[in-house]
Write a structure and sequence with these properties.
4 helices; about 110 residues; MFS_ArsJ; about 85% helix
C-alpha cells in the first residue's frame, strides 16, 4: 500500500505536464495563426483569400489529428510528440521564402 501515494503523485505529475504542454501549444498555435493572418493582410490579401489559407489549415488539421492518434497509439506518445515538434519546425522554416511579390495563386497553396 505504500506505493499508492507515489503512484498517485506520478500520475498527477504526468497529467500536469500534459496539461501544460497543451496550454503551451494552444497559446503558440493561436499566436501563429494571428501572425499568418496579419502578414497576409499587410500584403493586401482579401479576407476571402486569407480565409482560404485557414480552410486548408483546418482540413489538414483533421487529417493529422486522425493519423496522429493512430501513430500515438501504435508507436507511443513520446515519438509522436517529438515527430510533431520536428514537423512544426520544418513547416515554419518552409515559410521563410514566402515573398510579397508571389502571385496569390502561388502563395496561398504554398502556405
Amino acid at each position: 500500500m505504500d506505493a499508492s501515494p507515489n503512484f498517485d503523485r506520478a500520475r498527477i505529475r504526468n497529467y500536469a505536464l500534459v496539461t501544460l504542454a497543451y496550454w503551451g501549444f494552444t497559446i503558440t498555435d493561436g499566436a501563429l495563426r494571428m501572425l499568418v493572418l496579419l502578414y497576409f493582410h499587410t500584403l493586401g490579401y482579401t479576407p476571402l483569400e486569407v480565409a482560404m489559407l485557414f480552410l486548408f489549415y483546418e482540413i489538414f488539421g483533421i487529417v493529422t489529428n486522425l493519423f496522429g492518434g493512430w501513430i500515438g497509439a501504435r508507436f507511443g506518445v513520446k515519438l509522436t510528440l517529438y515527430g510533431g515538434i520536428a514537423l512544426q519546425i520544418v513547416a515554419l522554416l518552409l515559410l521563410t521564402p514566402v515573398n510579397g511579390s508571389w502571385a496569390v495563386t502561388r502563395a496561398v497553396p504554398y502556405v
